[in-house]
Design a protein that fits this description.
The protein is 56% helix and 14% strand. By secondary structure, it is α/β, with parallel strands linked by helices. Helix 1 runs antiparallel to helix 2, helix 1 runs parallel beside helix 3 and helix 4 crosses helix 5. The N and C termini lie far apart (133 Å). The C terminus is likely disordered.
Length: 304
């Protein structure tokens, strides 16, 4: 009777050990797969690592929890079966079973702690992956903002350069006894304001290029004709016409006062280069688009 009970007990013990070991092996493989997925591809020449999504990690953690509950249920069944077998065993066999039960309990306790740690690690890994994805998105937005900033700065710099004109100006000096010759730059054209005789004496308004539009404070208001004057476009014909106009005056006794409107700031460079080439000084007078200029015959304080 004792041998038969011991054989039955050993067979049941082996069956339960096989079931528990198989289930524990499946659980271990599942956990090992999760850890290997996190550590794959760390070599220099290895392919890029497989990134597990937070949702997948959450599902695996849930599966671990469910498998742990199932394992606990099977162990409870095993304990009840062992108790039944124990009632038919000898004292020596019962002591061995009790000893084995204590060791199995400790092993189970350690395994539960290990599973809890693995589940906690899976959750932390999910948080790390979520933070990594968020950081990548933030970095992408930052790079886009930096590129937009650089593009904006380049556009502003190009716009500033397009609006900047280099001016070569001679030194400011007193006009002395030199006579002032009034010029007007408007519509991209150069106009001689007054008529002059061969001795550079002023003979009144140059009505070929100007019209009188009114009076103000004892002076007359004039406007240049859009079709008159000399076109300042940098062409050879334009340069020759400007040279002929300026050579009517003597650079030793005359200087020019060009009144420049905003629509002719760029065209002023063509006049300036020729005036300096012929040795003339000038007193630049930039004015706003609609500001009136009244000629009262005053003297200048300095010329360039």
């Amino acid at each position: 009777m004792s041998r038969r009970s011991a054989a039955k007990q050993d067979s049941l013990e082996l069956l339960l050990d096989t079931i528990c070991n198989t289930f524990g092996g499946v659980l271990f493989i599942a956990i090992l797969v999760v850890m290997l997925l996190q550590q794959t591809g760390k070599g220099v020449s290895a392919p890029p690592p497989v990134t597990v999504s937070p949702e997948k990690l959450h599902d695996l953690s849930q599966q671990i929890t469910e498998l742990t509950a199932e394992l606990n249920r099977l162990k409870a069944n095993r304990e009840s079966q062992v108790a039944i077998v124990d009632s038919f065993s000898t004292e020596e066999v019962r002591e061995l079973i009790q000893r084995r039960r204590q060791l199995a309990a400790k092993e189970t306790e350690h395994q539960v702690k290990a599973n809890e740690l693995l589940a906690q690690n899976a959750k932390l890994t999910a948080h790390v992956e979520a933070d990594r994805a968020e950081n990548a998105k933030v970095k992408q937005d930052l790079d886009a903002a930096l590129r937009e900033k650089q593009q904006t700065q380049t556009t502003l710099e190009n716009d500033r350069k397009s609006r900047t004109t280099e001016a070569r100006l001679p030194l400011l000096r007193p006009p002395g006894a030199r006579q002032e010759i009034g010029l007007v730059l408007r519509y991209g054209r150069l106009y001689l304001w007054h008529r002059y005789d061969q001795f550079h004496n002023r003979q009144g308004l140059n009505t070929d290029d100007f019209v009188i539009v009114g009076e103000e404070d004892g002076g007359i208001l004039t406007l240049p004709k859009p079709t008159g004057g000399i076109v300042l476009d940098g062409s050879a014909e334009s340069k020759d016409a400007v040279r002929r106009l300026l050579r009517r005056f003597d650079s030793r006794t005359c200087y020019f006062t060009p009144i420049v409107r905003p629509d002719s700031f760029a065209a002023f460079a063509h006049f300036r280069d020729i005036a300096l080439e012929l040795g003339f000084n000038y007193r630049l007078m930039p004015v706003e688009a609609n500001s009136p200029v009244v000629d009262r015959g005053g003297s200048a304080t300095g010329v360039q």
